[in-house]
Amino acid sequence: MSRNITSPISFLPLVVAASMLLPWASGARAADSVTIVPGSLTQGTVKASLGAGTTYDSEGVNLSDWPLNTGGSAASTFAISLENADFNGNSFGGTPNTVVAFGSGGGITLQFNTPITSHAGEKDLGIFTAQSVLGGSGSFGLNGIMDAAILVSADGTNWFTLTGTPITSPTTYTATTFNLNAPTMAYNYGTGAAAWKDGSGVAASTLSALTVANFTTPMPNDDLFNGSGTNAQRIAFTTDTNAADYAAIFGSSGGGNWFDVSGSGLAQIDYVRLNAGSDVTAAQGGIRLDAVFANADAVPEPASVSLLIVSGSLLLNRRRVK
Predict the structure, then answer these.
(1) What is the C-alpha end-to-end distance of the chain, expressed in Å?
(2) What is the DSSP string of 235-303?
(3) pLDDT tops 90 at residue 94
(4) Pairing of strands 147-153, 268-276
(5) Of 103, 148, 198, 204, which is the most buried if we count CB atoms within 10 A?
(6) Does the CA dihedral 129-111-23-248 come out positive or negative?
(7) CA-CA distance, 80 to 71, in Å (whole number)?
């Protein structure tokens, strides 16, 4: 269907089309995500159940989903929470093949669908892993330690650390690694105890009454998982009924591990490379990478829509006077 852009009425579809194509134009959360660069995945050392020939060794997995549950029936749905991490090919009917695994000697390169614009002092890069807390297992805490070197690039060729050091061996660099142990939280549960209850299987209607967590904003404090927190403290948190404690750690965030990329010296980030730390052993299962998102503040703002509207208006006025 042809459009005549010389009339005010014909300009309206252009604005409507923009709001349909750009999620943030209609007020929805901005959600910039990633795709795996073909040929970049090397698994390294992982347990056999996550290794070669499994769905965890596939570059075709979807790392752009918002992990909400591992499936189930209307009577009992298993939501992602502190003690219920996402996994591939589950038997509950959830979305399969959304996690890729790699361990010591392995890594992966990811490309953002829209470049991240770095902001000084702000955590713009969110890395979500299928981490969980084994709260019902006595002295156990995290389900395997996860850490990786994080490198960034604007062109996929020149790589830098998060502090701006150039790296000539991006596929093997592991000199500096970062913990990736914060669990993913599907909903704003309100308390740790609620997260465990909902993570152990509840009616789908119970979950639908909850607010979906925000996967495009950092959690307020990840020290419990990536800092000085102990296994005993992590296990205790799974039964914490204090809403203030939950809010201080997760807020409305979907969890994840968040990083400030502004120190890299790059004005924008198009690529991210993760190399597993040497301590990510097969016994620990490797890094189970579930999703990667940018902070909503680091992707194009609604001002882009305004630019489109202004440009269209100028074109409209220009054609009217002819």
Answers:
(1) 24
(2) HHHTT---HHHHHHHTTTB-B-EEE--GGG--SEEEEEEEEE-TT--TTTT-EEEEEEEE-GGGS--TH
(3) no
(4) antiparallel
(5) 103
(6) positive
(7) 10
Q: Please write the tens of the pLDDT for every residue from 258-285.
A: 999 999 999 999 999 999 998 887 777 7
Annotated domain spans of the chain: 1-27+302-322, 30-301
Burial of 105 (0-12, 13-18, 19+ CB in 10 A): middle
- Distance between CA 35 and CA 41 in Å, rounded? 12
Question: Which amino acid makes up residue 60?
Answer: G
Chain-centre distance for alpha carbon 204 = 24
The answer to whether the predicted template modeling score (pTM) of the entire model surpasses 0.70 is yes
Q: Which residues contact 245 (CB under 8 A, 6 or more apart)?
A: 191, 192, 237
Spatial separation of the C-alpha atoms in residues 241 and 192, rounded to whole Å: 6
**Tokens linked to 87:** 């996994």
Residue 190: which residues within 8 A CB-CB, separation 6 or more? 243, 246
